[in-house]
Design a protein that fits this description.
The chain is of the alpha+beta class and 324 residues long. 28% of the residues lie in helices and 26% in strands. The protein has a seven-stranded mixed beta sheet with strand order 3-4-5-9-8-7-6, with helices on both faces.
């Protein structure tokens, strides 16, 4: 382990208590300067470490910080090839992954951030990504033999993985609003944005970025007015390590589905968790919305709807709204 990781392990062991720099240096057999540098690195990564003259350093006992070490501690063998990198804040994890992909980054890179200053949602919308409350991560994939039309399947895998992970970690039931939103107790707690990149001029799919934004906690000042009625969070109270565990659980479950794309398990789980089957919805089109009834979700996870005139349509992309 690096000096930073060794110092962090000592802080974790003594979370909430002050330890002098001299004591840390002596116990770990490193210099005071090395301790100071390690603390600065950890603070830069988002760890809430107080430094008080004549008392030393103290890691906040209630902070829940995303970290590579914390995420890796919960990953299983199927995620051995993943390379998570954690940031305190970025513009957009999807944009970061896209830039990495253009520079030749291989499959398995995962950008994870505690905040986004330019988070992106579907149809060019912004994605609210405040500091300290969420998990914002994007996975770089280079699937072989996948067509552009099949990218929806990766969004489906992510939606199921997130839903299962939320239940596993929080105990709360999670449901899916076609195609990419996760709801808990009638509130949206997660959005997913998958973006494909193609070779020019052949049009061959060369990479896909699966972006996942989860509201782990409610912002202290509340959600902005425009989403206050619809947005929710996964956890009711802050507990150390919850965000790392949830992030890792999502990666574990997503990679399990990704390694077996022909399995019916994703479809079955996605359909079971659907919020919309059997409900009246509004299908959003370029020239407005059209009322319809959601009949089913097919094997490709496309939404089958029936309009008032009796005609049916299979939606493989687009957006719907529903009153919950």
């Amino acid at each position: 382990m690096s000096t930073k990781d060794i110092v962090l392990a000592l802080f974790e062991k003594n979370r909430g208590f002050f330890i002098s720099g001299e004591q840390i240096a002596s116990e770990l057999n490193i210099t005071r300067t090395a301790v100071w540098k390690a603390v600065k690195f950890l603070q830069k990564e988002g760890y809430e470490i107080k430094a008080v003259t004549n008392r030393g350093y103290c890691l906040d006992k209630d902070s829940d910080v995303l970290s590579v070490r914390g995420i890796r501690s919960h990953l299983n063998e199927k995620c051995a090839g993943l390379r998570p990198e954690v940031f305190v804040s970025v513009g957009s994890t999807n944009t970061l992954c896209r830039d990495k992909a253009e520079l030749g980054e291989e499959e398995g890179y995962v950008a994870v951030a505690g905040a986004q200053t330019a988070g992106r949602g579907r149809r060019g919308r912004s994605f609210y990504s405040p500091a300290d409350t969420g998990i914002y991560m994007s996975i770089l994939l280079r699937p072989q033999g996948l067509s552009g039309d099949q990218v929806l399947g990766l969004t489906t895998m992510a939606a199921v993985a997130v839903s299962e992970s939320i239940e596993a970690v929080s105990g709360k039931k999670a449901e899916i609003k076609w195609v990419n939103d996760i709801f808990v107790n009638g509130k949206k707690v997660c959005g997913i944005l998958s973006e494909a990149m193609y070779e020019v001029p052949s049009g061959t799919l060369k990479s896909v970025i699966v972006g996942i934004g989860i509201n782990a906690y409610a912002p202290k000042a509340g959600f902005p007015p425009e989403i206050a009625e619809t947005a929710g969070c996964v956890f009711d109270k802050t507990e150390v390590g919850q965000k790392n565990r949830l992030a890792a659980e999502v990666l574990n479950r997503f990679m399990n589905y990704y390694d077996d794309p022909k399995s019916d398990a994703v479809y079955d789980e996605y359909r079971t968790r659907s919020l919309v089957i059997g409900k009246d919805v509004n299908v959003l089109k370029k020239d407005g919305s059209v009322k319809a009834h959601a009949i089913d979700i097919d094997r490709d996870c496309c939404l089958v709807v029936r309009y008032k005139d009796g005609t049916e349509e299979v939606l493989n992309s687009g957006e719907i709204s529903i009153r919950l």
